[in-house]
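Regression check, adenosine-5'-triphosphate case 250:
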Amino acid sequence: MLQLQNISKQYDHKVVLDDINLEIQTGEIVSLLGPSGSGKTTLLNIILGLTTMNRGKVIFNDVDLTNVPMKRRGFNIVFQDYALFPNLNAYDNIVYGLRNKKEVVSEKEIQDYIEFLGLKPHLAKKIGELSGGQKQRVALARTLVTKPKILLLDEPLSALDGVIKESIKQRIQLIAKEFKLTTIIVTHDPEEALTLSDKIVIINEGTIAQFGTPHEIINQPSNHFVEEFILKQLHIKRQNIYNLFGDNYA
Ligand SMILES: Nc1ncnc2c1ncn2[C@@H]1O[C@H](COP(=O)(O)OP(=O)(O)OP(=O)(O)O)[C@@H](O)[C@H]1O
Ligand SMILES: [Mg+2]
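Current build output:
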């Protein structure tokens, strides 16, 4: 279980996260959903250990990681812009993070991830020769081969469209369930969050507006912001949500 306790973050006296408290169970897919600038990436980077906080604790399986550096937390991230190395081919990008710790994963396991993500035909290609969806899968493979205890994804689907988005979404779900891998996904798209995750954290201006299952958020939005954001501001039509949740949507 991952516990975030009383996390606050300021940049230049501006409060970006204000007293965030959250518990995420092992193997859950949790979306951090909110408008641009609400603090999603900052919270993800605090969990990763990349960004410091002004106050609060990050606790994983009862171990306080607050002062443990990123490298020793055992989490890993797929960044919003993938951050792949353009001068390396797909395979060398995938194994890049293993250069000092080859023992964490066998070549067979690396090949299994490559197979699972459908990357076999693309391994020798340079990053510039890959499509958006292929780059995303390389970024995902590169992170998975490090066997993270928590997988963090910053807007993994936002640059993709239609069928490709759907297929990567399914792969993320399969990975989380197959490996019982706690997965935290930043998104600003309610439909994505509602269809992908076990639970959703709705963030508004650095505070948690609601934390619950998609079903709870649809049926019992706990405040006006949640209702507006989910149903109106991002133009999700009630009919679409009805199609997703059927009779459970009152
Ligand atoms: N390094 C930084 N220095 C100063 N301010 C920052 C820094 N990083 C983020 N901020 C500010 O913190 C706030 C939250 O930023 P954050 O990147 O967490 O938002 P976000 O919810 O991920 O937005 P988006 O959906 O646009 O990616 C914003 O007002 C942003 O300008
Ligand atoms: Mg962001």
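Comparison notes: The chain has ten helices and ten strands. The first helix runs from residue 40 to 48. No diff flagged against the previous build.
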